[in-house]
Amino acid sequence: MNMMEKKTNASGRLRIVNVVGARPNFIKIAALMAEYKKHPEIDSVLVHTGQHYDVKMSQSLFEQLQIPDPDINLEVGGGSHAVQTAEVMKRFEPVVLKYEADVVLVVGDVNSTLACALVAAKLGIKVAHVEAGLRSFDRTMPEEINRLLTDRISDYLFVSEAAGLENLRNEGIPKENVFYVGNVMIDTLLRFRELAAKSDIHRRLSLDGADYAVLTLHRPSSVDDPGAFRRILTALEAIQRSMPIMFPVHPRTRQRIDSFNLGPRFASAPGIRLVEPIGYLDFMRLMADARLVLSDSGGIQEETCVLGVPCITLRENTERPITVEVGTNTLVGTCPERILSAFKQVLGNSQVMRRVPDLWDGHAAERIVRTLLELRRL
Ligand code: UD1
């Protein structure tokens, strides 16, 4: 463990220990780290749990999103949910004590989010949860368990869409702890949009200007279940006959393709172009110019919403219902007929319905930091 020396909290400044673990966390924390820099009264510490560790899943995002190097990397790596969560907890506790955190700030819904929130809550340290209140109402998703438990023990809950307010109200979370601030993932998207527009990913992938689709898949419900993965693949085999599909493959998905012996099916569908995970700026450019996106991701439902690109979500539910309400997102599950019918519908619609959700305006991090500073004065 790299325990870089940083003085403990005798400074009188608000010390916020920020936690990141997995790829979507980095995109969210980028907005907050940039905002902290504007406030000398904040002393921020960045802890990377090491849940994601490949260069393409982690380090390259730090560089592109101009996130400072983590003060500490807990280097937990992979493992079962229990092992990964427990390992983060064990390694995070001494760190949070050493830094004398006033607040531990966690983002999203990954195992690292819950693990660090739980450590802080038990030590009596205030927990701030960014992206609170989202619910898929599907407890087979590991993220749903992480979201429910993190919110339950958080002191400050920062919500990105209206459904989150309602969910927290229904769960009896006191409303004075809940703040509707908008979406930090969209802060990052808007901040880096111009830079992303300069990416030459189209040239590198030899995309010649014709329509293409972008695909991402990594959730256990789509790739750990061989039946679901095969059903999705059946739809993709049909789609790739009319349009190339760019598919940056997540490490977990790569493992499943091998273990389910799906390589030969991909090989006989040359329109599905499997590539390594793609950096943030390239991926934003690739999505922005796509005819449509097929995905089981959470964040991509939000990013396509702001980019105005149709998103076909390969899940039965979403914790981000606003993206369906505004019209960019369609939930189809893993049934090939439903996927194909949504695909045809998108092709038949030249105009995407689009209304950017309230407060997805690039200023969510600003609101969060302002709120944390105000709460400190109370
Ligand atoms: C995790 C989050 C998920 C999030 C996703 C984004 C949980 C429960 N899941 O899922 O919510 O949407 O991140 O990507 O926290 N691996 C590598 N290299 C890496 C990272 C992972 O090879 O850099 C391998 C791991 O060894 C493991 C597999 O990929 O075998 C899954 O990684 P893990 O972090 O457990 O979960 P994700 O599927 O990435």
Task: Give your account of this protein's structure.
Helix content is 46%, strand content 15%. It has helices at residues 23-36, 59-64, 81-98, 111-122, 142-153, 162-170, 184-197, 201-204, 220-224, 226-242, 251-259, 263-267, 280-288, 299-307, 322-325, 336-348, 364-377, and strands at 14-20, 42-48, 72-73, 103-107, 126-132, 156-159, 178-180, 213-216, 245-248, 272-275, 292-295, 311-313, 329-331. Helix 5 (142-153) links the parallel strand 5 and strand 6 (156-159). Helix 10 runs parallel beside helix 16 (336-348). The longest helix is centred in the N-terminal third of the chain and has 18 residues, at 81-98. It binds uridine-diphosphate-N-acetylglucosamine. Uridine-diphosphate-N-acetylglucosamine is lined by residues 22-24, 51-54, 57-58, 78, 109-111, 142-143, 218, 250-252.
SSE layout and pairings?
Blueprint: E1 14-20, H1 23-36, E2 42-48, H2 59-64, E3 72-73, H3 81-98, E4 103-107, H4 111-122, E5 126-132, H5 142-153, E6 156-159, H6 162-170, E7 178-180, H7 184-197, H8 201-204, E8 213-216, H9 220-224, H10 226-242, E9 245-248, H11 251-259, H12 263-267, E10 272-275, H13 280-288, E11 292-295, H14 299-307, E12 311-313, H15 322-325, E13 329-331, H16 336-348, H17 364-377
Parallel strand pairs: 1-2, 1-4, 2-3, 4-5, 5-6, 6-7, 8-9, 8-11, 9-10, 11-12, 12-13
At a glance:
The protein has 378 residues and is α/β, with parallel strands linked by helices. The chain is 46% helix and 15% strand. The strands form two sheets. Strands 3-2-1-4-5-6-7 form a seven-stranded parallel β-sheet, with helices on both faces. A six-stranded parallel β-sheet has the order 10-9-8-11-12-13, with helices on both faces.
